[in-house]
Structures are given as C-alpha cells and as structure tokens.
Design goal:
Chain lengths: ~500, ~110
C-alpha cells in the first residue's frame, strides 16, 4: 500500500507527458487532465484515511533505507495540503475549460498545470530536503512557463523578474543545503531533526535555519513579497488562481516543516524573527490593499495578508495556534482561488480593472454577486464560513503565549481585508449598471460550476470543521511532537 | 585545498553578485549562471574534497570518498542548466516585445 504515496506526484507527471502528444485534440486533453486531478484527489483521500488508521507511512525509493535514500513521507499535515491543492486545481481546471482560450490550450496549458501540481504535491510529500529543492524547481519551472504563456508585453516583463527572483532564491536554498550537509552530513529531514536535537542548535545551525527562513520567505511572500503583486497580476485568471492558491502555500508549508521539525530549538531567535516578519507582512499587505485602485492590486495584497496571518500561527507555535494555521492554510487555498477566479470574471465581464469603473454587476449576475459576498465574509473570518475556525484558533494561541501585538495586528487585518473587499463589492456590484441586461456577456457555465464548487468548499470547511478536525488534530499532534515523525522514519519496524 | 576552493567560491560569488546588480538583462543572467557554479563548488567543498578511494565495493576497500555531493551537484547542474536556458529564451522574447534589455526601462507602471 505504501506505493500509493508516490501517486500524487507520478500520475500528473505521466499524464502531462502524455498530453504533450495530444496537442491538437483539446477535448481529449481537457477530459484527461480533469480525470487525472480527480484521481489524485481521491487517492489522497484514501491515503488520509490510511494514515489516520495506521500512523505516518513512508516510501523508501528503491529500497534504500533512511537516512540513506530519498523517501516520501505521508503524514496528515502533508496529505491535507495535497488534498486541498488537488481539489483546488481540479476546480481551476473546470474554470479554465471555458475561459482560458484556444491559444493557451494548444500551447500546452494542461501539461504545465499538471507539472505544477506534481511539483506542489512532491514538495508536500517529500521527506528529504534536497528532494524538496528538486520538487520546488519542478513546480517553479512549470510556473515560469505558465506566467509567461501568452507573451503579452506586461506578462513578459513581469515574468522575467519573477524568474530571476526565484532563481536567486533557489541559489540561496542550495547554499543553505551545502552548509547543512557540511555541518550535519545528512539531508533526510527526520535525520536532520535528530542530529540537531543531539548536538543542540548551535549558532552555525541557527544561521543555516535563518538562511532557510530567508529562502522560504521569498517563496511564500513573507515580508519579501516585492515580486508578488506584479507577477500575480499578469497571467489569465485560472493561472492566477492556481498561483495564489498553491505557490505561496508551498513556501508556508516548508517554513512550518522546517521550524517545527528540524530547527525548533532556538525559538528565541528564529520564531521571534518569524513573528516580526509576519507582523510586518500584514501591515505592509494592509497598506497595499487599502491603497489599491484596481482589483488586481487589492487581491494580490490580500494574498500577502493571508501569508502573514498563517505565519502568526507558526511564530506563536502553541498547539492551538498551529491547529489554526492548518485550518487557515486550507481555507486560504480555497478562498484565494475563488477570489482570483471571481476577479478574473469581473474583468472579463466589464473589460475594466479599476474598481470605480465597474458598477451594478449584481443586477445582471445575482448569483455571481452573492458568491463574491460569501467569499468576502469567509476571508474576513465571519462564522460559520471557513476563515472563522482558523482565525479564532490562531487568536487563542496568541493569547496563550501573550503575543498581544501579533494578535492585535492579525485581527485588525481582518477588518482591513473586509474593508478592501467590501469596497470592491459596493463599487462594482451595487450601484447603477453600466451594461444593460440585453448587452450583458453571459458567464460561461463552467465558470459558474467552479464558483459554486469553491463556495461549497468554503462553507464545508467552516460548517464541517468538525469532520475535518480528526485529520487536523492528527496533523498538529505530529507537528507539536516531532518525535512521532522522526520515529516513524528512523525507527525500524515502526 | 579546501581553503583554496573556498576562496575560489568567494571570488565567483562576488563576480556573480556584481553582475546581478547591473541593469542589463544579459549580465544578470550570466550572473545567475556564475552564482550557480559557485554554489556547486561550495557543495563539493563543504562535503569534503577527495579523502578516500572510489566508492565502489569492488574497486577499493575503504575509506571511501563521499559520493553524495557529486550526486547533488549533478542534479543542481541539470536544474540550473534548464533554468538558464529558459531564462535566455524569455529574456530574448522580452527584449523583442518590450524593445529594451535594460531593467530600468522595464519597471512597468501601474497606471499604464
């Protein structure tokens, strides 16, 4: 059964290669890519239940036992994220079917989405830090292509900056890995954790940890987000939604993994830095969201606020804060995907990006308007929608640890998020409609299906938090007690 | 030998950093290529330069050289090769479409 773990990585890669040869038959490409993602999601669901019943499972490639070989590790935390990522990708694909256009579809859009999700799933599942680097690169190369696909002036300009930033970040990742290997002589994450615990986290290791923090912050958009608003505004809506939902979250996952499993000892330094960075990220993100006049700016800065908020959970580091972070991570993937899909649709319908030039959308598209409303409430954290559980648990953790400044910043940001999105809602959805009912463009059915599916997921994460809680509890239990993870990998017969 | 290698890595990193800080597209890309070479050498050096025999059971009987840094570098070289190739194509297209290879002119305004 262990072989199942590799499937979320290998299935998308194999089908992606297959799809390259089916370039002309777009219908076939659509069906195959959709089926692939549904298959990956269901396999992950099966895996989640296996892990729930049997504990952490691992797959040693070619039988090389840890710590020598590369391995995949499936714990609840990784699987929850793989599951959410696969679901969101499936839904974004449905949206893409009706909106992305023939030109993209013929230029290998679907294969690259599958490569992207393969890289994302691989990053979540791997148990070897060099393999994490490789999976990051698989994901990034696919994202480079997706960001530049289309070749418009602004797209090329921003994608070049995006690629260069990521190349430099990957370079720093390699430097960190070199020092890590030089000091600890191992790259297996569990083995690193064990050795760090044995020798204690001396200043050299803390330096390596901070270097890793820098790398993952660049990828996650934690304080070092200067590249994010530009590159997330240029590609088509389906790709933006995928980026907003997946790419920064992989960085966040890596941060949480690094600082709960591998370098948890010197919290005075590392977690303080993360806390300061998270607070600054939220403040800067709020400023951006408030100052934005076009919907792209508002939406991209909302992504940044979300990143900061999740990392408050890591900075505080108590069990309830981490539970909140896991909930909020899943919520954020779904809600940010919906935000970008809706905004893409608004721009398609009106041909405008500036908020005040759109008006009265809700008259022509009532359902569309109400889905936006639900998404807005979820992002602001209003019960019973998805953002609420995560926010309240992170807040609870912050109170336990007396991190009142972070608490205040985090909850003040909710109001700013609500304000910035409400401004879009009031200006663009209410008011006199500029387009008469007869002249309106119809919203494609596929787009409606994807909006509804994402809205249902948002409601489910909020209302059905209880059904998710068994998995989340297990995930956080492993995060808080890294010895469970280490024993599952290094102890024979475990 | 290790100290010599580290100095070499330092020189490469400074050259790469200098190139990256310039405004010309092609210099920046060359800078990233040089940086990646530097980090490959760094991995080789911190992993320990040749200390033992070939890591094959039939060829020598220990102590063996650590073969892992080479494997890591091989992977990293392939990745950096692919990325650099992609970057060059992207830079060429950007230059063709935007009509400039100077990042100062590629800032992009939000009000355009």
């Amino acid at each position: 059964m262990n072989n199942l773990i590799v499937l979320p990585l290998i299935i998308p890669i194999i089908t992606a290669v297959l799809l390259v040869f089916l370039r002309e038959s777009i219908m076939l490409q659509r069906i195959i890519s959709l089926l692939t993602m549904i298959a990956v999601s269901s396999i992950t669901l099966i895996l989640l239940n296996i892990v729930q019943a049997e504990g952490i499972i691992r797959l040693d490639f070619s039988g090389w036992l840890p710590p020598f070989g590369i391995l995949f590790v499936a714990d609840s935390f990784a699987l929850l994220l793989v599951f959410t990522a696969s679901i969101v990708t499936t839904i974004c694909l449905i949206y893409a079917f009706s909106t992305i256009g023939n030109r993209h579809e013929k230029m290998f859009f679907y294969p690259f989405v599958l490569f992207l999700i393969a890289g994302v799933n691989g990053s979540f599942l791997t148990g070897d830090i060099f393999n994490l680097f490789v999976c990051f690169e698989v994901m990034l190369l696919a994202s480079y292509v997706l960001v530049a696909l289309g070749g418009e002036i602004g797209q090329l300009r921003e994608s070049l900056k995006y690629v260069l930033i990521n190349v430099v970040a990957s370079w720093m990742f390699l430097v960190a890995l070199a020092y890590l290997y030089g000091t600890l002589k191992t790259l297996n994450m569990a083995h690193i954790a064990e050795r760090v615990a044995e020798v204690g986290q001396d200043p050299l290791l803390t330096t390596v940890a901070i270097l890793l923090l820098l790398v993952f912050s660049l990828k996650a958009g934690l304080l070092l987000f200067f590249w994010l608003p530009g590159s997330y505004s240029v590609p088509p809506a389906a790709i933006q939604a995928l980026f907003a939902a997946l790419l920064t979250k992989v960085g966040i996952y890596a941060l949480i993994r690094t600082f709960t499993l591998m370098f948890p000892l010197d919290q005075g330094i590392t977690h303080t830095i993360i806390g300061i960075m998270a607070g600054a990220t939220i403040i800067a993100g709020c400023m951006g969201a408030l100052s934005g006049r076009d919907v792209y700016t508002i939406a991209t800065y909302n992504v940044i606020i979300g990143v900061g908020f999740i990392l408050i959970g890591l900075a505080v580091g108590t069990e309830s804060a981490l539970t909140g972070a896991v909930y909020y991570l899943m919520h954020d993937m779904v809600a940010k995907a919906l935000l970008f899909l809706l905004i893409g649709m608004m721009i398609y319908l009106t041909g405008e990006t500036v908020v005040k030039n759109m008006s009265g959308l809700i008259r022509n598209y009532p359902l569309f308007g109400w889905i936006y409303f639900i998404m807005m409430l979820a992002l602001a954290g209003i019960p019973p929608l998805s953002g609420f559980v995560g926010k309240i648990l992170i807040g609870q953790g912050a109170i336990e640890e007396r991190a009142y400044v972070l608490l205040a910043i985090g909850f003040a940001s909710s109001i700013i998020v609500l304000y910035s999105l409400l401004r879009v809602f009031l200006a663009s959805f209410f008011g006199e409609t500029t387009i008469s009912f007869e002249d309106r463009k119809p919203i494609p059915k596929g787009a409606y299906v994807s909006f509804c599916l994402l809205a249902i997921s948002i409601i489910y994460i909020g209302v059905g938090a209880e059904t998710l809680s068994v998995y989340v509890k297990d995930a956080v239990h492993t995060l808080v007690n890294p010895s469970i993870y280490i024993d599952a990998i290094l102890k024979e017969g475990a | 030998m290790e100290s010599l290698m580290i100095i070499l890595v330092g020189i490469l990193v400074s050259v790469g950093t200098y190139l990256i800080l310039s405004r010309q597209m092609i210099r920046i890309i060359l800078g990233t290529a040089i940086l990646s070479h530097a980090v490959h050498l760094l991995i080789l050096t911190v992993g320990g330069l040749k200390k033992g025999g070939v890591p094959l059971l039939s060829q020598s009987d220990g102590p063996y050289t650590d073969a892992l840094p080479q494997a890591l570098i091989l992977t990293a070289i392939v990745i950096s090769f692919a990325t650099t190739a992609f970057l060059l194509v992207l830079a060429y297209r950007t230059y063709k479409t935007n009509g400039s290879a100077d990042f100062h002119e590629l800032r992009g305004m939000s009000d355009e």
